[in-house]
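Human:
Focus on the backbone:
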Amino acid sequence: MSPELEQYVLSHIDPEGDYLYRLYRATNLHTLHGRMASGHLQGRLLKMLVRMARPRNILEVGTFSGYSAICMAEGLDEGGKVYTFEINDEQEDFTRPWIEGSPVADKIVFTIGDAITEAPRLGIVFDMAFIDGDKRTYIQAYEMALTVVRQGGFILADNTLWDGHVVDHAYDRDRQTHGIEQFNDLVARDPRVERVILPMRDGLTIIRKL
């Protein structure tokens, strides 16, 4: 999408709001990989998907700066929770204050730890999961999510087009790209789910557990 068309889209959807704008700016200023944050368009899509599916419990694999967790929490009904896990403990000093200072802090449970092992121990049945962690472990995160998400629930997976690297042979030896490719191939033939890839931003796969 050209910058002009992207700006047109952003000017014709719900605004991200001042808090998220400041968080996105701070993420880009103070973290090494600021573009990993969901951003305005994807953030509004996540909120809308939550509004549509009306989950009570959401699992997030990969908190990063907290932007996507806040967006999903904005869409929750009263009593809903986002349980978000970040495996990189060096991210906590940046992320925790932004989550705890957000207007939806009471709807977010932020944990430093590996969601693949820790989330099942919560004993919670989730209605939705958002996978946005280490691309090398997407399959493990997906298989875990299938065990904790209810029948008919949704799994969202981010970055599934990976800047187009999934069709670029120059990245055949890249482990992150290989992880995404293996994940995409598995989901495409998995009889346990139905799926669609949205070619927006960096690719978002929406999966429904049958």
